[in-house]
Amino acid sequence: MVRLPRPIPARARRDVGVTLSRRGLLAGAAAALACRAGARPVPSLIHRPASSLPTTTLPWLSLRDHFVATVGPHAGEGRPRGALLVLADATFAPRSRFPLHPHEEMEILSVVIDGTLSHHGSEAHGAAVGPRGAQLISARTGIVHAEGNDTDAPTRMLQLWFQPDRHGGAPAYFARQLAGVGREVIAGDAGMPLRTDARVWWITLAAGATAPLVVEPGRQAYLLALTGPVRVTADGAAARLATGDGAELGPGAFALTADADHAALWIDLPA
Predict the structure, then answer these.
(1) What is the per-residue pLDDT across 138-190, written as a single tens digit (0 to 9) for each?
(2) Distance (Å, whole) CA 105 – CA 137
(3) Do the domains spanning 19-48+206-271 and 54-194 agree at the CATH topology level?
(4) CA 128, CA 53: separation in Å to the nearest integer?
(5) Which of 100, 125, 176, 233 sits between 20 and 30 A of 208, alpha carbons compared?
(6) What topology does CATH give the domain 54-194?
């Protein structure tokens, strides 16, 4: 039986020891040695290949969990990254959908990469989100809903759960369509207000172009290659991310590039 998504109790958030790439481990060790020596620290970059992440494959759904898993045999495994509890990279088969299920006090952000995501339930019943579209549900005192795919083609989407720092109030629903040009905020601004100190961007890269990324002191970031390979570099650290790979980044300046037109997701959080 599939275990349905629900807010995750703290006791379930145990670390499953996600495998790290050798390059990422070396970068982290170099940063630690530089700090001890009094030198300028090397920006931290830990590559997390998609192949190292827990995977769930069902007849109607396949997904990889970057943090805490919510469905399938790995449900409850993983560790959050600050207020970010869940980042699931999921593909729905045609004409498939979760059963209706409840949420309380959770910020639920869905981002569609390919296909169309349908949403049913007590908030925005019947809404559909297409490619580069985003939907934010602030569950607050409680909702009942279900995501799915009501079309004849697969739908690939991301779902992120953030633990709110404010509670109570009536549920709220927000939606946004991205243009697919440059760096666009998905959530964390006035139009898509997260109830936590976080911001999420979609970054569209033209072939050969460079997007500068900065992680401020006291902050951390997570990068996800959405539609093809990208390369992230910093002074003394570098990683090539295949589609679906993630990377944990600490304070410092980074450069993001791609050999072809591709997109990446960028999440900024407190350290």
Answers:
(1) 999 999 999 999 999 999 999 999 999 999 999 999 999 999 999 999 999 99
(2) 10
(3) yes
(4) 29
(5) 176
(6) Jelly Rolls (2.60.120)
Are the C-beta atoms of 47 and 21 separated by less than 8 Å? yes
pLDDT of residue 213: 97
CB-CB contact of 248 with 81 (8 Å)? yes
Partner residues linked to 65 by β-bridges: 88
Q: Is 30 exposed, middle or buried (CB count within 10 Å of its CB: 0-12, 13-18, 19+)?
A: middle
> Structural domain boundaries of the chain?
19-48+206-271, 54-194
- Local structure of residue 171 (DSSP, 8 states): -
Give strand ranges (E) for 122-162: 127-129, 133-138, 143-149, 155-162
Token pair for 11: 């006791």
Pick the closest to residue 114 from 90, 135, 136, 96 (CA basis): 90
Topology of 19-48+206-271 in CATH? Jelly Rolls (2.60.120)
Residue 23 above 60 pLDDT?
A: no
Q: Could you tell me if 191 and 118 are in contact, meaning their C-beta atoms sit under 8 angstroms apart?
A: no
What is the model's pTM? 0.85
**What whole-number distance in Å separates Cα of residue 50 and Cα of residue 110?**
19
Instruction: Please name which of 198, 228, 196, 233 lies closest in space to residue 213, comparing C-alpha atoms.
Output: 233
What's the rounded Cα separation, in Å, for the pair 86 and 109? Answer: 10
Among 19, 41, 23, residue whose Cα is nearest residue 232 = 23
Beta-carbon contacts of 123 under 8 Å, excluding residues fewer than 6 positions away, are 137, 143, 145, 171, 173
